[in-house]
Amino acid sequence: MWEIVGVVDDVREGPLDVDTPPAEYFPISQTRGHYFSLVVRTRQEAGALLPVLVGTLHQIDPDLGVSDEATMSDQIEATQAALLHRSSAWLVGGFATMALVLGVVGLYGVIAYSVSQRTREIGVRMALGAQRSSVYKLVLRQRDG
Predict the structure, then answer these.
(1) How far from each other are the two terminal CA atoms of the chain, in whole angstroms?
(2) Any idea what DSSP says for residue 18?
(3) Which of 4, 46, 89, 119 has a beta carbon 3.0–4.6 Å from 71's, enabling a disulfide?
(4) What is the distance between the alpha carbons of residues 100 and 98, in angstroms, rounded to a whole number?
(5) What's the CA gap between 98 and 91, in Å, rounded?
(6) What angle do CA 127, 132, 135 make, to 5 degrees?
(7) DSSP conformational letter for 43
(8) What is the pLDDT of residues 21-31, one digit of tens each?
(9) What residues contact residue 64 under an 8 Å CB cut-off, 6+ apart?
(10) How far apart are CA 128 and CA 122, in angstroms?
(11) What gap in Å lies between CA 26 and CA 2, rounded to an integer?
(12) Count of beta carbons in the 10 Å neighbourhood of residue 49
């Protein structure tokens, strides 16, 4: 016979990419198991609070064994779903960088070819007193005049 003492909202305690299964939580005194999980919500920095929590548990029961203590961020980062998302983000970022480099190299090649075709014209314009900015505009706009 169990007494229901409360109902909680969905708690994600498994992989991030699967539905949340129903779960039951029991007081330590009503279970037959030899282990339990402790989840703590805090406004402080979680990594700094872990040693304090372990110390408090040892003050309550010095024979209590504590293992696998980790922050929720560390737990999430260690999942396969997080690794997959992180890897795909790096892959997309790498392709975007490669596209940017190819675009810049291609634009440089087109402008360099255009300038090499019009070297004499540019030289004559500069000799006749054309301003450097007007020559830049001429090259970038690809028109005469």
Answers:
(1) 95
(2) S
(3) 46
(4) 5
(5) 11
(6) 80
(7) S
(8) 877 777 777 77
(9) 57, 58
(10) 10
(11) 9
(12) 14
Distance CA 77, CA 15 (A): 11
pLDDT > 90: what percent of the chain? 20
Q: Which residues of the chain have pLDDT under 50?
A: 144-145
Cβ contacts of residue 76 below 8 Å, gap of 6+? 16, 82
Q: Which two tokens stand for residue 20?
A: 């949340």
Query: Could you tell me which of 39, 101, 121 has the C-alpha nearest to residue 72?
Result: 39
Q: Which two tokens stand for residue 117?
A: 């075709």
Q: Map tokens 């500069």 to a residue.
A: 126
Chain-centre distance of CA 142, in angstroms? 42
Task: Scan for tokens 């030899």, then name that residue.
Answer: 34
Q: What are phi and psi of 86, to 5 degrees?
A: -65, -40
Alpha carbon 97 to its chain centroid, in Å, reads 17
Q: Please identify which residue in the block is written with the tokens 């402080």.
A: 44
Kindly state the tokens that stand for 78.
């260690």
